[in-house]
């Protein structure tokens, strides 16, 4: 249980184009979804928090117009990198929160990640 | 703000031996949760173990166990009978139980298993 998928796993695009990444919770309804960015040999950096039907909350320094997040349902969130440039090349990871039972806090389960290369 | 510190960038252990990864954290809250996540070369983040701060008993999951010292704000991970498949980056993480669902990660420890 608690499986999160992410698509595509790897994408190469030209500078100036937009890329959409999908994150799905396959066997549960997620209370919240999160988008992270990970640079080589570094930890995960939270980009934004997303709740179904409401606007995403972006972390300081993350451009909301460049990284568009849509949370269409309790099982699907998308991240669109608009007008991508080489500096946007990175590994993007989503996670989905599974609500804990009996008052336990949510646990985040992660997707397999998307490697974005902008030429 | 919460911080999580992993002071060991790299660790290595002989196959079948035991290794302990260190983690300390700083928080002003009394109710929170701690996690260890594993990131193998595939880069898939995998939940290894979780600990509720209000529980004194240390969490265990098969060969993985933690030593949770709340007063010292320490949360180490012990891996027994190390296997080649345990080779990965290990991240310690903290989350508050007061509505802020953000995970705070440590910088990670790269674990190498020596055959």
What does this entry look like structurally?
The complex is a heterodimer of chains A (119) and B (115). Chain A is an all-beta fold and 119 residues long. Chain A has no helices and eleven strands. Chain A has strands at residues 4-7, 10-13, 19-25, 33-38, 44-50, 57-58, 67-73, 76-81, 90-98, 107-110, 114-118. In chain A, strands 2, 4, 5, 6, 9, 10 and 11 form a seven-stranded mixed sheet that branches. In chain A, strands 1-3-8-7 form a four-stranded antiparallel sheet, with no helix packed on it. Helix content of chain B is 0%, strand content 52%. In chain B, β7 and β8 form a beta hairpin. Chain B has strands at residues 3-5, 10-14, 19-21, 24-26, 32-39, 46-52, 60-61, 64-69, 74-79, 88-96, 104-105, 109-114. With 115 residues, chain B is an all-beta fold. Classes of the chains: A mainly beta (119), B mainly beta (115). The interface between A and B is medium-sized, with 21 and 21 residues.
Summary?
Chain A is 0% helix and 51% strand. In chain B, β10 and β11 form a beta hairpin.
Shape of chain B: globular
From the spread of the alpha carbons, the general shape of chain A counts as globular
Strand content of chain B: over 45%
Radius of gyration of chain B: 14 Å
Percentage beta strand of chain A: over 45%
Question: What key phrases describe this protein's structure?
Answer:
heterodimer; A: 119 residues; four-stranded antiparallel β-sheet; 11 strands; globular; B: 115 residues; six-stranded mixed β-sheet; 0% helix
